[in-house]
Amino acid sequence: MFATLGRFAGRRRRWIMVGTLVLVAFSAVWGTGVFSRLGGGAGFDDPGSPSAHADRVLAGPLGRHANDLVVLYESDRLTVDDPAFSGPVQRALESVPRDDVTRLDSYWSTGSPGFVAKDRHATYVTVQLRSADDQERVQQLRRIQGDFAAEGLTVRFGGTTAMTDQVNRMTLRDLAIAEAVSIPVLLILLIVIFRSVRAAAIPLIIGITAALGSLALLRFVTFFTDISTFAIQVVTILGLGLAIDYALLAVTRFREELSAGATVEAAVERTMATAGRTIVFSGAVVAVSFSGLTLFPSRFLLSMGYAGAGTVIVAVLASLTVLPAILTSMGTRLKTARSRTADPLAGRWYRVAHAVMRRPLRNTVGIVVVLAALGLPFLGVNWARPGDWVLPPSADARVVTQELAARFAADPGKLLTAVVESPGPADLATLDAYAARLDAVPGVEGAAVTGAAGRQARITLGYSMDPMSRDARRMVEDLRAVPAPAGGTASFTGMPASRVDIVNMVTSRMPWMALFAAVVSFAVLFLAFGSVVLPLKSVVLNLLSLAAAFGAIKLIFQDGLLDGLLGLQAVGAVDVNFPVLIVAIAFGLAMDYEVFLLSRVREEYDRTGDVAEATAVGLQRTAHVITSAALLVAIVVGGFALSGIVFMKMAGIGLVVAVAVDAVVVRGLLVPATMRLLGRWAWWAPGPLARWWRRYGTAGPAIPGSGASTGRLDSRPART
């Protein structure tokens, strides 16, 4: 089938090229319109959580009581008592339009000394915006932000809405910077890898085609569901990364076939019959990894699932159609560089494989112990949800939080809201008694009834600790343990409460996602290789590379390891969404490389029947493809490590570590050792499954001129 597809694409290459140009032009115009259709917020919350329920109630007649925006005014030489300070501030506040504002409180409107810094050189203003929707509040802020300017004073914007706005703006800016840095570096590295400008251009063409095509697909999806702003990052990483991987694999195989004396047409057919088949199975595994994200109800993770799976589909389709058309068009001009794989027996990776396989048990145990040890620090992780801590230290929202903690009696943004729903009309005495019990919870600093409507009431609570700390989690758990008024229920919302709910959502569903990805990957790999042993081995080895990445992230971002070298500032926590994304992307890429390697090992094993030799030759034939692909992916995701947004740094550094460990340590060392230990058991399946696979499975076709054949799988392993 794949050979037929290659032959068809070669013969219809002009039509395919024209159609691709039209698609790319359309995607560049219409597809990039997706940026205007993405949500103003990230959508981290679980819509079925208690905090989300409280938010929905507060969006009704009861109304909210929150400080969405904290505007900080400060001066080095003036105090709030000086007319040169108070005058400009009061004039600015009077000029703020009230259409988007429900409440605006200041030192001058309340007379409260809590609004003034201890040194009296700063004051803040609290603003509650009218909308109950976080995305709409960002737009309301942007409309009125300029009106807060006060001549001669420094003005900074903090609070949840300002933080969300600053993260959104910085994310799009950093995305542009990452692409501007990574694409030129990618082109240079591709030229070095292929030793040919023509060959180097092919992966980049496929990558750009896949990325732009994915944007068009993502915009189509926005007509049916809300998509998070951060989905664009997945499209960029996968669109370029996977397409480059696939093109690298196909171009390398095409060159091999040309070097073996095949005609251009025959080389394309053989390339698609082998590399094309590998691409399809690889893409299926990666798509499965991302489809597992749809098990999570948050808009952020759902968006990542839709974007990731869609991008994989586009990358595979481009690789199966556009790629063979380009290969046919360029033909023997791609044969200009010296083949690196002409003599696999003389290759470095061939020698490494045999060296590892001479003592397979010792090497397997040693590598597994090292990787497991690298992952041990992750057992002490402190989970958090995104907040102002994800911004760089110089960002307004983060500076405001630090200034409020250091110079003021309290942070007005640190509020929790309890929504009480009673079977009958709200009773003020009962509510006051309940508020008093809440106020007695350790960590709570004041609780008061601030509103009532029918059977619903609102209690506002203050707190002082870091909302991402373990103390804050205990406070929320203690508050929820306080019995609600008789016959009623109480729901809590606010940063600490939503953090607890998001962490609970992710940690409770993460095992199911992992199980889903493992089971479906097992099925796909069985279809590819006809073995029940290889899929199990692949899942275990992939978990080891992920463990190493998780351990590194915990040490770097929570504990502050390498702060000076990386220019970071430890935040004492790890974003709970991080491991989900890393599992989806890194697990998919690891399976990508596994399919690349084992497909070639299987070809050699079918030809020779010698497991050790097949493994060594397969590694030599694919190692430079895998390591080059890993390097190029690391360049793409490494651009995000330059971001000022901490969780983008987290994802970038985590993926670089996971990809590097997987490509070099796992594929280059651990796979040969385990393959030697397993011997022909690696290809084993129970008799009924082996017979089913021989009849209905997707065994690689016999490749004329390559010596490959199929059908060596047996339910009983032979001696090695």
CATH overall fold name of the largest domain? Multidrug efflux transporter AcrB transmembrane fold
Total separate domains: 3
Q: Biggest sheet: strands side by side, in what order?
A: 2-3-1-4
CATH architecture of the largest domain: Up-down Bundle
Domain SSD: 204-329
Membrane topology: Multi-pass membrane protein
Main location: membrane
Keywords: Cell membrane, Membrane, Transmembrane, Transmembrane helix
Explain what you see.
With 720 residues, the protein is of the alpha+beta class. It folds into 3 domains: 2-41 and 166-333 and 352-383 and 501-696, Multidrug efflux transporter AcrB transmembrane domain (Multidrug efflux transporter AcrB transmembrane fold), CATH 1.20.1640; 68-158, Alpha-Beta Plaits; 395-499, Alpha-Beta Plaits, CATH 3.30.70.100. 62% of the residues lie in helices and 8% in strands. The chain has helices at residues 2-11, 13-29, 50-58, 83-95, 107-110, 134-144, 160-194, 197-221, 231-259, 264-291, 299-330, 348-358, 360-375, 396-407, 428-439, 470-481, 495-529, 533-558, 563-566, 577-608, 611-638, 646-678, 687-696; strands spanning 69-74, 101-105, 122-129, 154-158, 383-384, 415-421, 444-453, 456-463, 489-493, 574-575. It has a 4-stranded antiparallel beta sheet with strand order 2-3-1-4. Strand 7 and strand 8 form a beta hairpin. Helix 7 crosses helix 21 (611-638) and helix 17 packs parallel to helix 20 (577-608).
How are the SSEs placed, and which strands pair?
Elements: H1 2-11, H2 13-29, H3 50-58, E1 69-74, H4 83-95, E2 101-105, H5 107-110, E3 122-129, H6 134-144, E4 154-158, H7 160-194, H8 197-221, H9 231-259, H10 264-291, H11 299-330, H12 348-358, H13 360-375, E5 383-384, H14 396-407, E6 415-421, H15 428-439, E7 444-453, E8 456-463, H16 470-481, E9 489-493, H17 495-529, H18 533-558, H19 563-566, E10 574-575, H20 577-608, H21 611-638, H22 646-678, H23 687-696
Parallel strand pairs: 5-10
Antiparallel strand pairs: 1-3, 1-4, 2-3, 6-8, 6-9, 7-8
